[in-house]
Design goal:
The protein has 348 residues and is α/β, with parallel strands linked by helices. Helices cover 38% and strands 17% of the residues. The protein folds into 2 domains: 23-189 and 266-344, Rossmann fold (3-Layer(aba) Sandwich); 191-263, no CATH class. It has an 8-stranded mixed β-sheet, with helices on both faces. Strands 5-6 form a two-stranded antiparallel ribbon. The protein has a two-stranded antiparallel ribbon with strand order 9-10. The longest helix has 19 residues, at 2-20.
């Protein structure tokens, strides 16, 4: 009798869980053999993994098409970690069920490179990652999945390196997305914390990839240099650095430093202001206690510059660190980003 009672309780709890769980979408992992990245001098793999969230009902409604949100991951992160560690799938299931956003497709490309990340930039060493993301990837997704294949149904978002990539791609590829939202965007403009930065000295002393990967700051310096001051002939990393080693000190190399500065959105905005004006909406936010010291001041500077150029935008500083309030039901993704795209994308 006791065992029967336990069985009945178990069945009741399973029925309750089935009733309260949101309808489940699924994540499809596919691969794109990139023609653009093929043969890059930096040795980056042109076969790129892409994780794609398909909402509940995608298979059951073969006539329905969906808007697409392209989400760009951060430095040393990747698409798999976004879904399997950050919990993006459960978050999307819950947000759709709660009406935070209508059903949509979410695409996360893997742009982790040999040295942590592509920075979503075209590089003579790494290959044309910006073109890959804004052109080749979109064409691939529109061909493989039932998308609403038009700019009005396409959104762009990302965190940290991906937040900076969101801003740079929105500036460089006008007419590609309807709206863009950058979370804690990195490398928006110059700041003493990384120009030239603590990782440049160790990067100059490193003689192999293994040495560069021993510390986060060294890896970041190598990654930034390969993205923004590439030189395929420069051993061992295919890049020039904004510094040189003296007998007992690090000297700044202003010519290389200028390449990093000129690649930042604070300096490209005056060249491409119309690209952001054509967006239906543009937003970014950052934590006031961000451990990445350049992010809060450069975000404020960028917001001020957008105002000078008369570009409508939303910029918000909130109480939080670099990653403390991004995912989860109380995080920025659920509370701010998804409702933003629900409002500004075409769903029909």
């Amino acid at each position: 009798m006791k065992n029967l009672y336990i069985l009945l309780l178990l069945l009741a709890s399973l029925r309750l869980a089935a009733q309260t769980a949101p309808p489940a979408g699924r994540v499809v992992v596919t691969h794109l053999d990139s023609k653009l990245l093929h043969g890059n001098p930096g040795g980056e793999n042109p076969r790129r993994r892409v994780s794609v969230y398909l909402p509940a009902g995608y298979e059951a409604s073969p006539g329905q098409r969906y808007p697409v949100l392209y989400y760009l991951h951060g430095f040393t992160w990747n698409d798999s970690l976004i879904f399997n560690q950050d919990g993006m799938k459960a978050l999307l299931d819950q947000a759709i069920a709660a009406g935070q956003i209508r059903p949509l497709i979410v695409v996360v490309p893997d742009e982790q490179t040999r040295f942590g990340g592509s920075w979503y930039a075209n590089s003579a060493t790494n290959g044309p990652w910006a073109d890959f993301t804004a052109r080749e990837l979109i064409a691939f997704i529109d061909k493989q999945f039932r998308t609403l294949a038009r700019p009005g149904s396409r959104g762009l978002a990302g965190h940290s390196m991906g937040g900076g990539g969101t801003v740079r791609l929105a500036l460089a590829y006008s007419g590609t997305w309807a709206a863009a939202y950058a979370l804690s965007p990195a490398f928006l403009g110059p700041h003493p914390s990384y120009l030239p930065g603590p990782g440049v000295g160790p990067a100059l002393r490193a003689t192999s990839a293994a040495e560069a990967q021993r510390s986060h700051t060294t890896l970041a310096a190598v990654s930034l240099a390969r993205a923004f001051s590439p030189n395929p002939k420069a051993a061992p990393f295919g890049a020039n650095f904004p510094g040189s080693l003296g007998a007992d000190s690090l000297a700044r190399r202003d010519a290389v430093l200028a390449r990093w500065v000129l690649a930042s959105p604070l300096y490209t905005l005056p060249i491409h202001p119309a690209a952001l004006r054509q967006l239906r909406a543009f937003a970014f936010d950052w934590g006031a206690q961000d451990e990445v010291k350049h992010i809060p001041p450069t975000c404020r500077q960028f917001s001020n510059l957008l105002t000078v150029y008369g570009i409508r935008h939303t910029a918000e500083e909130y109480e939080g660190t670099h990653g403390s309030r991004i995912m989860g039901p109380t995080g920025r993704m659920y509370q701010q980003v998804l409702p933003f795209f629900n409002k500004h994308l075409d769903f029909e």
